[in-house]
Amino acid sequence: MNQLLIEFKEMNSSILKLMKSGLKFSFVFNIFSTLILLTYDFGFAYPILYNTGISLFKTSLFFMVGFIICGFAFNKIYKELSS
């Protein structure tokens, strides 16, 4: 865990900025899917709302994980190329 935190602190600023903006996009996507699921729960109980909300929720989580993994991978590639 300490190695991960050290690598995060030594990350290139442009890669970190890209990673943060991707996480913000994924978080907004996650809030939108949560609103759809709340509409299903409290309003209209149509199965299409549930399926859409769950699919968007899973997609936003995959985007979050993807941005984090790609950020660390690009940082490692950047370090190897600059050495």
Short description:
The chain has 83 residues and is an all-alpha fold. It has helices at residues 2-9, 13-42, 47-82. The radius of gyration is 17 Å and the shape is rod-shaped.
Description:
By secondary structure, the protein is mainly α. Helix content is 89%, strand content 0%. The protein has helices spanning 2-9, 13-42, 47-82. It is rod-shaped. The mean pLDDT is 92.
Number of strands: 0
The overall pLDDT average reads 92
- Cα distance, first to last residue? 25 Å
Order of helices and strands: HHH
Question: Overall 3D geometry?
Answer: rod-shaped
Helix content: over 70%
- SS-based class: mainly alpha
Strand content: under 5%
> Biggest β-sheet: count, sense, barrel?
none
**pLDDT below 50 for ≥5 consecutive residues: which ranges?**
none
Number of helices: 3
Whole-angstrom Rg = 17 Å
